[in-house]
Write a structure and sequence with these properties.
This protein is of the alpha/beta class. It has a single domain, classed as Alpha-Beta Barrel (TIM Barrel). It has helices at about 30-40, 55, 65-70, 85-95, 105-110, 110-120, 160-170, 190-200, 210-220, 230-235, 240-250; strands spanning about 5-15, 15-20, 25-30, 45-50, 75-80, 100, 125-135, 145, 150-155, 170-175, 205, 225-230. It has an eight-stranded parallel β-barrel, surrounded by six helices.
């Protein structure tokens, strides 16, 4: 049985890790390389770094930070934010990342998914999506895709977009619920389950993790393959080891090395 992955998320703004609720009221948490090293040593399975204003500010990601992270850790990590072309993908991968996460640029230019998968392999291409509950009749799933850090609504149905991205070569989907982001009240199980049950690629749940029980729920009830954590570990309330121990006790397969 495949183990479930625990993935710390580091939101980056001006070379610092930051955290807010639905990308608002952000506070400074520390240096990204130091935090990445700590989570790696604690036993996380992967890491993801999002430059949260790169797309809205229409600028590239900090490649030197990517290189420093690659030198510091020995586990896979993904990078997102400001990746708008094959050249951007190549630069990030050459700097040491194993995956690129594309969100807003993929919506604006869906061919980027197909071209990236063809050039670098589907395993390198992660579709990030920011769905929000919606009554828009164009979104029969009940969820609409937003872009530019939740700032713009697109009229695109979340399930339709997930299926299209898979058909174009995306190797993984991160479902970051706008409604749950930063709340620490639990993952949005319905949208996560909807995507997981209707696609054939790994689905990563994101947004809302507050305690290990929330991770157990999204693995068992929503079928997620991995879960992103942020605030619950950034505050020191939980460690990676604590989370994995509780999941193991709940009968959920996780990679343990202690």
């Amino acid at each position: 049985m495949l183990t479930k992955r625990i993935i710390p998320c580091l939101d980056i703004h001006e070379r610092r890790v930051t955290k807010g609720v639905r990308f608002k009221n952000n506070i400074d948490l520390g240096d990204p390389v130091e935090m990445a090293t700590r989570y790696y040593e604690e036993g996380c399975d992967e890491l993801v770094f999002y430059d949260i204003t790169a797309s809205s500010e229409r600028r590239p990601i900090d490649l030197e930070m990517v290189r420093e992270v690659a030198r510091a850790i020995r586990i896979p990590f993904a990078v997102g934010g400001g990746i708008t072309s094959l050249d951007d993908m190549s630069a990030v991968l050459l700097a040491g990342a194993e995956k690129v996460s594309i969100n807003t640029p993929a919506v604006l230019n869906p061919e980027l998914i197909e071209e990236g998968a063809r050039r670098f392999g589907a395993q390198c291409i992660v579709l990030g999506m920011d769905p929000v509950r919606s009554d828009n009749p164009a979104c029969p799933s009940g969820y609409e895709i937003t872009i530019r850090g939740f700032r713009e609504y697109t009229g695109i149905d979340a399930l339709e977009w997930a299926r299209r991205a898979e058909s174009m070569g995306a190797g993984e989907i991160v479902v970051n619920s706008v409604d749950a982001d930063g709340t620490r009240a639990g993952f949005e199980l319905n949208i996560t389950r909807l995507i997981a049950e209707n696609t054939g690629i790994p689905v990563v749940a994101s947004g809302g993790a507050g305690n290990p029980r929330h991770l157990a729920e999204v693995f068992i009830k929503a079928g997620a393959d991995a879960a992103i954590v942020a605030g619950m570990i950034h505050t020191g309330e939980y460690s990676i080891a604590q989370i994995k121990n509780e999941l193991h006790q709940a009968g959920i397969p996780v990679r343990r090395h202690w």
